[in-house]
Write a structure and sequence with these properties.
Layout: E1 6-11, E2 22-29, E3 34-41, E4 45-52, H1 56-60, E5 67-73, E6 90-97, H2 106-111, E7 113-119, E8 134-140, E9 146-151, E10 162-167, E11 176-183, E12 186-192, E13 196-205, E14 210-211, E15 217-222, E16 236-244, E17 247-253, E18 260-266, E19 274-280, E20 288-295, E21 304-312, E22 317-324, E23 336-341, H3 349-363
Antiparallel strand pairs: 1-2, 3-4, 4-5, 5-6, 7-8, 8-9, 9-10, 11-12, 12-13, 13-14, 13-15, 16-17, 17-18, 18-19, 20-21, 21-22, 22-23
Main location: endoplasmic reticulum
GO molecular function: guanyl-nucleotide exchange factor activity
Membrane topology: Single-pass type II membrane protein
Length: about 375
């Protein structure tokens, strides 16, 4: 019998070697697997935030320290005289805590876990000013399931770093979340449940560790109800990503694995958004499991190209592109197919983002 470790592994993509080798690894837990991961850049490496449940015994005592943080020390070249030598990369434990509310039911105590983590993006342009970011985590199988928004300025976030807590109705949870950074402590957190899209506004004073004013929330889109005479089920929303401050991209799985659709929603200052574009994926894509986007470098007018990667249940990967025409026009081109790949083992958006990073570097040459 072979046991597979629950571990976090660091890979170095700076080499052009055909095979990528791990440069550091840490066995994180014997109790449960890592369910989600996000990284913050630091001066000397990275801080990793991860979802990783405590033991079943700890969970039975309503003490599930599901939020873990780790420190990554990256290799450094020594001085020119011995530049061939490098320090080794390493991963170490920083801390763990519980940010979700304690579950109410015995089933949730046993089964609830941290399904998602998402950080606000770093500035697209280089800056010498330290960037203060926020994060969002979402639980699954909770009672209730929650979305917790927190200040991501600490390598060991605690309860006092929580900015907003959103509880979902019974049998509902966040399927995906994305964050738009507006500057000066302002953010918009967009999240999807099966049939609805909501945006949570955040205005936060990082120095005072408190919200400024009331952080309002609004529903901006709902999957239309089918015609009662047709007796059809509704598509379910699986993923969400910001394309611009006024455009959201949704990934929707049609009922009974009958196809996948991309939906672009244009937002307004008030009220619901409107669908401005739909794109149906090829017939072999019966259902999708994940989606991520990469915003390429903007030109002087603020226009940029966007790469979209979609992982499907048939282990295929579809890549699309769309152009954003800048703030003056505030509009998008049609979504165009770029390429598709078969037998790609997509396990999470981490892999999708790596593919998009490679795509971005190719397009920007």
């Amino acid at each position: 019998m072979v046991s597979i470790k629950n571990s976090i592994t660091l890979f170095d993509f700076t080499s052009r070697a055909p095979n990528v080798q791990p440069s550091a690894e840490l066995e994180v837990s014997k109790d449960d697997s890592v369910t989600c991961l996000a990284a913050l850049g630091t001066q000397n490496g990275l801080v990793l935030y991860a979802g990783n449940n405590s033991s079943e015994e700890d969970r039975s005592r309503a003490r599930n320290e599901h939020f873990r943080s780790f420190e990554v020390q990256l290799p450094k070249n020594k001085r020119a005289s011995d530049a061939a030598e490098k320090t080794e990369a390493s991963i170490g434990v920083l801390g763990k805590c519980m940010l979700f509310s304690a579950p109410h039911s015995a089933v949730a105590v046993k089964e609830a876990y941290q399904r998602l983590i998402r950080l606000s993006p770093p500035p697209r342009a280089a800056t010498n000013t330290p960037t203060k970011r926020i994060g969002a985590i979402a639980s699954s199988l909770g009672d209730p399931s929650e979305l917790v928004i927190f200040s991501a300025t600490s390598n060991r976030p605690q309860g006092q770093d929580i900015i907003e807590r959103i509880s979902f109705p019974k049998n509902q949870e966040a399927n995906d979340v994305d964050i738009l950074a507006l500057g000066e402590g302002r953010f918009q957190v967009a999240y999807v449940a099966d049939y609805e899209v909501h945006i949570q506004n955040v205005h936060y004073d990082f120095d005072q560790q408190k919200s400024i004013g009331k952080n309002e929330r609004r529903k901006v889109y709902a999957v239309p109800q089918p015609d009662l005479a047709e007796k059809k089920a509704r598509s379910k929303l699986r993923c969400i990503r910001w394309l611009s401050p006024k455009h959201l991209l949704l990934l929707a799985n049609k009922p009974n694995r009958t196809g996948v659709e991309l939906v672009v929603v244009h937002l307004y200052e008030e009220g619901p958004g409107s669908v401005v574009q739909r794109k149906t994926l090829p017939k072999h894509v019966k259902a999708a499991t994940d989606m991520d986007v990469a915003l390429l470098d903007a030109d002087m007018s603020g226009a940029y190209q966007i790469a979209i990667a979609i992982g499907a249940i048939d282990v295929s990967l579809s890549v699309y592109t769309v152009d954003y025409y800048g703030d003056a026009q505030d509009s998008l081109s049609k979504i165009h197919s770029f390429n598709s790949y078969d037998d790609v083992r997509i396990k999470s958006s981490i892999y999708l983002q790596n593919i998009l990073i490679l795509f971005r570097s190719t397009m920007c040459r």
